[in-house]
Specification:
Length: 48
Amino acid sequence: MNINCSQYRKTMELLGLKRRLEKEPLKPEERQEIEERIKKLEKELELD
């Protein structure tokens, strides 16, 4: 599987955001923003 730099960056961002959701206590608005970004990244990476 070959990926370019942009895909790699998005994948690393996605993993970081998912980890942040699991580990950190977040305000509801922060959680919503992160969840929306995760959905967008998954769609861009065709993971949805």
